[in-house]
Amino acid sequence: MQALLTPDGEPLRQGLTWRVFHPIPGADGKLPLLASAEGGTATLEFAPGDYFIHVAFGRAGVTKKLHVPASGPVETQQLVLNAGGLLLNAVSGNDVSIAANQLSFSIYQAGIDGADIEQQMVAENIGPNTIIRLNAGIYHIVSHYGDTNAVIRSDIRVEAGKLTEAVIQHRAAELTLKLVSESGGEAIADTAWSILTSGGDVVSETVGAFPSIVLAEGQYVAVARNKNNTYTRDFEVTAGRNSDLEVLLQ
User: Fold this and answer.
1) Distance (Å, rounded) from C-alpha 170 to C-alpha 217?
2) What is the pLDDT of residues 53-105, one digit of tens each?
3) Phi/psi class of residue 115: alpha, beta or left (left: φ > 0; alpha: ψ in -120 to 50)?
4) What's the domain of life for this entry (predicted)?
5) Which CATH architecture has domain 83-170?
6) Which end of the chain offers a freer environment for a tag, N or C, measured as fewer CB atoms within 10 Å?
7) Which of 250, 198, 185, 195 is nearest to 223 (CA)?
8) Are the beta carbons of 3 and 55 closer than 8 angstroms?
9) CATH second-level architecture of 173-248?
10) What per-residue confidence (pLDDT) applies to 115?
11) What letter would DSSP give residue 159?
């Protein structure tokens, strides 16, 4: 058994998972697994009969029905995956790099005519610069920068036999919050923070002397609480402009 990315491609030499199933479901309603193999080309022996062969290459896969005759040779089975690779990364603003631990991607099969993409997840919590092997087609990508509200969605086409590299542009920035007695002063410990939208909705709540937070571009209000006192400051987030946000005691 051999697997190819495209009809005119070369057989893959590694990274494959082969599985052979009996065509009649078992008592649990599933097709019984008869054999499996890892690597590239695989050779297996079976009694005459019908079988299903499935090969997976990452998250790409294809299934083929095979008939083993009672006599005579069985020709080499070539399965065409019609698959490619997807490598994702993201920047903030125009070209500000983002730390790898601040980024994660989820991949969905693109919805058709407004279908709910959330029910067709392909992969989640994918880090940047990770090659994901997928069947050719259009995928809906959800990119998370930080864990607050910096989320970008986009559709990307994966082509068979090719590696598609995509850089997603976030309209967001990372801020470090500080409650200080004077501009440029030391951050005051034991401070509770709330970040509100201009409409008053709570975006984030945290506690610390200088917590960091990633926010989507827009207008916000920072609320700092320390020793039963509350201090506020209106501020604006501009994409790609990481900075310190100081809230003064007075």
Assistant:
1) 9
2) 999 999 999 999 999 999 888 889 999 999 999 999 999 998 899 999 999 99
3) beta
4) Bacteria
5) Sandwich (2.60)
6) C
7) 195
8) yes
9) Sandwich (2.60)
10) 52
11) -
